[in-house]
TrEMBL record:
Coiled coil: none
Protein name: Phosphoribosylaminoimidazolecarboxamide formyltransferase
GO terms for MF: IMP cyclohydrolase activity; phosphoribosylaminoimidazolecarboxamide formyltransferase activity
The keyword Transferase is annotated on this UniProt entry: yes
NCBIfam families the record matches: PRK00881.1
Top-rank lineage group of the source organism: Eukaryota
InterPro entries: AICAR_Tfase_dup_dom_sf, Cytidine_deaminase-like, MGS-like_dom_sf, PurH-like
Keyword Amino-acid biosynthesis among record annotations: no
Pfam families: AICARFT_IMPCHas
Organism, scientific name: Rubroshorea leprosula
Length: 443
């Protein structure tokens, strides 16, 4: 202060700083050179923010435009509320920390390339408080990856909600599962999810038919579920969703928690909004691939690559005497895409690009198979079966029961010490067996 007084320099009461838009630049669709990325790293801005935040007792620091109205009210009232000042200072330090984290992550990718750095900082910010968590006695909130939200990247976190009740904790989980699954398919596809498991999946050139078949796969589970499409929802599809009756009794209108799609026509959105005041209608962009998947355990975090493999990445190797016809190969690929998204132990049975039945979450693979077979019923004849992992036993176990049911082709990773038993069993029953050498556990 002596130096300021000596040179006649005044003090600042308010400091407002907008940092260089680093997120926007380095994640732009046009791309950016390393040199331009470096140029977009703000140096003076963070320094001013830190200095002002440290001196929050005498300086108001603002880094978020949403705080402008509160700042103006504070100044008009001539308040000296230290809690308000501390809150702004906290927000300022948090803002700089997130900014520096994004720069650090970008530099790591540019110069080192290792997916797992020695330390990991994820810039997340609060999007909304939720009514409760997975259960009513649990408090909950939804945080968003700032590095993605600021460039409006894909996924459920940045989805636009056009209609319906506010999203719940479980809604976010289920919508994310449905969107992840439907995004896998290139052809027009409908996916219906219940408790994060796909209970109905169908691909057709006609999305109306795909929707009907997806519901038919398990209408009991579909009721109260989440419906996802990878194509635009137009008026005709919206009317079908609005008026469709449950196949179980032909009378009850199907009820859904959420509909999610990449876009809606104006009329399609109007029709869907008329179905129910509570129906949540989400518009989402396709997920960004290659991101780390993080999961918390007691005292730490697990990080891994996302399971982004597609059929083009896989060699479906025929190991049986029988070669499957082209139609069964297509069904095998379809079932394989579906089983990726089913909780382990997972079995999916499919035919004509439509899921007929699935078994999920069972401690042993045989029980998952039996559930899937029961769901598929008589349609199992000539269908494709996919398993998320190898079969530890074949004779008098899952492989033989599948063969006896009339399954046409089985797809599994292989890798068991009893692979030869599975091959011999399929040969005995004239069933095609494909190995992928890729496992899809989902816990």
């Amino acid at each position: 202060m002596e130096a300021l007084n000596k040179h006649g320099i005044g003090t600042f009461d308010v400091v407002v700083v907008n940092l260089y838009p680093f997120y926007d630049k380095v994640t732009s669709t046009e791309g950016i050179s390393f040199e331009d990325g470096i140029e977009n790293i703000d140096i003076g801005g963070p320094a001013m923010i830190r200095a002002a935040a440290k001196n929050h007792k005498d300086v108001l620091i603002v880094v978020d435009s949403q705080d402008y109205p509160a700042l103006l009210e504070f100044l008009k009232g001539n308040h000296n509320d230290q809690q308000f000042r501390i809150k702004l200072a906290w927000k300022a330090f948090q803002h700089v920390a997130s900014y520096d984290s994004a720069v650090s992550e970008w530099l790591w990718k540019q110069t080192v390339g290792d997916k797992f750095p020695p330390s990991l900082t994820v810039p997340i910010s609060l999007k909304s408080l939720l009514r409760y968590g997975e259960n009513p006695h649990q408090k909950a909130a939804f945080f968003i990856d700032k590095s993605l939200s600021e460039v409006n990247a894909g996924g459920i976190a940045t989805a636009i909600q056009h209609h319906g009740k506010e999203m719940s904790y479980n809604n976010y989980l289920d919508a994310d599962a449905a969107w992840n699954c439907v995004s896998e398919f290139k052809n027009p596809t409908c996916v219906i999810v219940k408790h994060t498991n796909p209970c109905g999946v169908a691909s057709r050139d006609d999305i109306l038919e795909a929707y009907r078949l997806a519901v038919k796969a398990d209408p009991v589970s579909a009721f109260g579920g989440i419906v996802a499409f990878n194509t635009e929802v137009d008026e005709a599809l919206a009317k079908e969703i609005r008026e469709f009756r449950s196949p179980t009794d032909g009378e009850t209108r199907m009820f859904y928690e959420i509909v999610v799609a990449p876009s809606y026509t104006k009329k399609g959105l109007e029709v869907l909004c008329g179905k129910s005041k509570t129906l949540r209608i989400l518009e989402a962009k396709m997920n960004e691939k290659g991101k780390l998947s993080l999961r918390q355990v007691g005292g730490g975090w697990l990080a891994q690559d996302s399971d982004d493999l597609v059929p083009e990445d896989i060699q479906f190797k025929v190991v049986s005497e029988k070669n499957p016809p082209e139609s069964e190969l297509r069904d095998a690929e379809f079932a394989w895409l579906c089983v990726k998204h089913v909780k382990s132990n997972a079995i999916v049975i499919a035919k004509n690009n439509c899921m007929l039945g699935m078994g999920s979450g069972q401690p042993n693979r045989l029980e998952s198979l039996r559930i899937a077979l029961r769901k598929a019923g008589d349609e199992v004849k000539g269908a494709a079966l996919a398993s998320d992992a190898f079969f530890p036993f074949a004779w008098k176990d899952a492989v033989e029961e599948a063969c006896e049911s009339g399954i046409g082709v089985i797809t599994e990773p292989g890798g068991s010490i009893r692979d030869n038993d599975a091959i011999d069993c399929c040969n005995k029953y004239g069933v095609s067996l494909l190995f992928t050498n890729v496992r899809h556990f989902r816990h």
